[in-house]
Design brief:
By secondary structure, the protein is an alpha/beta fold. It contains 12 helices and 20 strands.
């Protein structure tokens, strides 16, 4: 299936954004670890969160996380301390996503985990047991989800856990988000330089409300930037957010979009401010990269984006996917060092009716759809991938006047 996208002349509406997947998935783990009797308010309705809800409620020892990378990592750690025998698996793509660094760390702490297929990759067989804890050394440039998975179960370990991060530390805001939420659930943490220390401690149950998703907000910022006439109110966002992707509000200032915070969220409006070339290190906000690549090209703004090393191990190799799909729209972008994307203004002949391939990646669909504001006859293949994080995305686009066939 594919959608043909046509954009309206003006984009104005009030949008209730989906709940944050990152916060929802952490809250589910922390709720379970605190044996909380409370439901979580405004829990995300996306695929990644739903597979975790299913895992906690099904009573089955076979857990299929489908394409949910966050769920695979968080649940692998959680199940390693949960009495019982478990098998955790996922899609064929999930079975190609390495997990050995997390498994090695857990095994070194006393976990009992075996590979059921290719060594280093899901599916896994896990026998839940109490973990001793202690000290481990991890490369700081691994997925922050590996680190967060270990951090959340650290207070349950008899000796607690000290993690020494080596080399460059990427996605720091996601680690801070995890530690911040652990503090909300009553656990003290200590991060000094490259060392994070967590002592044995019991989580305290609490009533938790999930903030809306700043990553989802980025696509509306993109629409505001690309449209000549836009005014959007995005509800459910906090000014003092723990989400790293809240950086989007600051970054879009250079692309002509101003943010006003209200009691209900934010209001986006157009400005005349526009950079001549955009430079940014996305090491702390890798999920924003696709949004800014498409936006800058559509606005004719050259860019140099660094810190993208984690993009190659996401739902797809996002660096390669961006190069291929932007070329269909007439833009030639280059990569280097497995972590840099650059566009110097080079163009090529665009396809007459481009069909954007989504690679089982929700962010490819959502980042490219707004390009219809600048490009007629834009098509998105396999549009249902958005259910991974933003199930109502296409309905929300229709609500502001997009035609989707």
């Amino acid at each position: 299936m594919q959608y043909k996208i046509k954009a309206p002349g003006a984009i104005k509406n009030v949008i209730q954004l989906p709940a944050s997947k990152s916060i929802s998935n952490r809250a589910l783990i922390l709720n379970a670890l605190s044996f909380s009797p409370f439901d979580i308010d405004n829990l995300s309705d996306c695929d990644d969160t739903n597979v975790m809800v299913e895992a906690f409620s099904s009573g089955s020892s076979l857990i299929d996380v489908k394409a949910a990378g966050t769920s695979m990592r968080f649940l692998t750690a959680f199940l390693s301390i949960t009495p019982g025998e478990w098998i955790i698996t996922g899609t064929e793509r999930m079975k190609e996503r390495p997990i050995h660094l997390l498994v090695d760390a857990l095994v070194s702490l006393g976990a009992r985990i075996q590979y059921l297929g290719k060594v280093g990759y899901p599916p896994l067989q896990i026998k839940g047991t109490s973990l001793n804890g202690g000290e481990i050394f991890l490369s700081g440039d691994v997925s922050s989800q590996f680190i967060s998975a270990l951090l959340m179960i650290a207070p349950t370990m008899s000796q607690g856990l000290t993690i020494h991060l080596e080399g460059d530390i990427i996605s720091i805001p996601y680690i801070k988000l995890t530690l911040g939420m652990m503090a909300q659930y009553g656990v003290k943490t200590h991060w000094d330089g490259r060392t994070i220390k967590i002592s044995p401690e019991e989580y305290k149950a609490m009533h938790y409300v999930v903030e809306s998703d700043w990553s989802a907000a980025s696509y509306w910022y993109e629409m505001a930037a690309l449209s000549d006439d836009s005014r959007l109110e995005l509800r459910g966002l906090f000014k003092n957010s723990m989400q790293g992707d809240s950086k989007v509000a600051e970054l879009f200032l250079d692309l002509g979009v101003a943010t006003e915070f209200t009691n209900d969220g934010v209001v986006l409006s157009k400005t005349d401010r526009m950079t001549k070339k955009m430079f940014h290190n996305f090491v702390n906000e890798p999920d924003l990269a696709q949004t800014f690549v498409v936006t800058c090209c559509m606005l004719g703004i050259p860019f140099l984006f660094t810190g993208l090393q984690s993009l190659k191990i996401k739902e797809t190799d996002r660096i390669e996917a961006l190069k291929i799909e932007m070329k269909k729209l007439g833009y030639v972008i280059y990569d280097s060092e497995d972590s840099i994307l650059e566009w110097d203004g080079e163009r090529c002949e665009a396809e007459a009716e481009p069909v954007i391939k989504t690679y089982e990646d929700h962010r490819m669909a959502m980042a490219f759809a707004p390009a219809a504001i600048k490009i007629d006859h834009l098509n998105i293949a396999h549009p249902n991938v958005v259910t991974k994080s933003y199930p109502k995305y296409w309905d929300d686009l229709k609500s502001v006047g997009f035609t989707i066939e």
